[in-house]
Amino acid sequence: MRKRISFVFLLFLSIAALTSCTRREVLLFLNWGEYIDEAMIEEFENTYNCEVFMDLGESNEIFYSKVRGGTTCYDVVCPSDYMVQKMYQNDMLMELDFSKISNYNLENRMPGVVGIADTLEEKAPGITSYYVPYLWGTWGIVYSTLKEGLETVVKSSSNEWASLFDRSVLPAGTRVAMYDSHLHAYYAACRYLGFDTEEELSQNELNQIYELVKKMNYDAWGTDDIKKDIVAKNRDLGFMWTGDFLYYYCETAANTVMDAYLAKDVSLEDISLMIEEITGEKRIYKEKYQIGFDIYIPSDTIAFCDNLVIPKDSANTELALKFINFMCGRKEGVNEVDPAFANTYYVSYDAPYIDLYDDIVALKDLEFKDDALLAGEDPYDSELYWNIYDKAIGIAFDKYYPKEERIILPDGGIKKYKGDILTSFSRNYINTINSTFNNARA
User: What is the DSSP string of 329-394?
Assistant: First the structure.
């Protein structure tokens, strides 16, 4: 995926000078990397005659420190649920004027987004007025389907987290990567050991996590490189965001189908069948073509919802409200720009809105009848290729982001979304978690 440049904010004096010359408003946006379609930022800039400058953060904790530090007065920030809670409880956020965010419809939220919102409201009453959902999803265990015996272990172990923490159950030579975020690794370890993920643990319990991580001795700790290494067959198993997996899954599916089409191993009429077979239970087409990796999402996994918020010290609140409203919009302007669809499609995390989700899933019904879509083009950047990708992403959203998924709790209750959001622990306890994992890794 493309990545928009993260401007160094020591250059803001230059930006201010530019603004004074052009008289264009400036919006400062703190976001995750590769987490928005750049074309939508450009559309917003053109629509409102403004400049958007985007800084990137690698974790929610970095988001918090950047906003808390006040060195830069961000206008819009994209923190996850538990960090929105922490910012709200520390009086760092501005209450949103929803009369100016007309594209946001509470009734249009996906059931899982509603469930996470209800959880947040229980923890921090009144918080619903301070954020708008942007994207959401889960974490999962990505694994190679080419490593003999690995899928059986991942999907059939009595403990859903065993493949990440018990080498004795894995096939010999399995190369395991853990995501390099101690808070997420901590959650997974707690789930494996049966510890409470919402309360601070005793020293004895932390010692058990330390011994678990030390004994596991992961082959790698990584972020984006985990998915790339599994796709490249350099790793066999790793813990990561479902959305990161899904993008590479659909891209690999599209490349695989195009390979077969150019080799004349699949006809235009059978492309749909091939996509359905390599993404379905069969996994392989003509005993030759396959994707080679998949994801298992534990029932008690991490769920998250990333949100758009306005910090209290925003220097351009009105433009920030316009930005949030624009990014929630469907079919904006005379050119039929669709920001909400474009961002969800580009990033491959789950859609926060029901109509948007339905539109993406509808892509799975695409059929292929016109090979003129390939004529005179790079076949891997042709309209035919992107139609194949579209069908794959529609199938993947339907498969890995089920709209009405509900989890039956041990007490018989029902949760509206798979997994749990992370807990907003104190800074001291976060430091304790970090030192526990740093020591185990050392």
Answer: -SSBTTTTB-HHHHHHHHH-SBPSBHHHHHHHHGGGG-----GGGGTTS-GGGSHHHHHHHHHHHH
Provide the residue count of the chain: 442
- Structural contact between residues 113 and 352, judged by C-beta atoms closer than 8 angstroms: yes
pLDDT-derived band of residue 193, with 50, 70 and 90 as boundaries?
very high
85, 127 contact by CB (below 8 A): yes
For the segment 222-240, what is each residue's pLDDT rounded down to a tens digit? 998 999 999 999 999 999 9
List strand residue ranges (DSSP E) for 220-369, in order: 220-222, 237-241, 284-285, 289-290, 293-296, 303-308
- Measured distance CA(46)–CA(357) in Å, rounded: 27
Cα 45 off chain centre by: 25
**DSSP three-state, residue 24:** coil
- What are the pLDDT digits (tens) for 243-284? 999 999 999 999 999 999 999 999 999 999 999 999 999 999
CB atoms within 10 A of CB 385: 20
Helix axis angle, 242-262 to 383-400, nearest 10°:
140
- For the full predicted model, state whether its pTM sits above 0.85: yes
Residue with tokens 């990584």, as numbered in its chain: 222
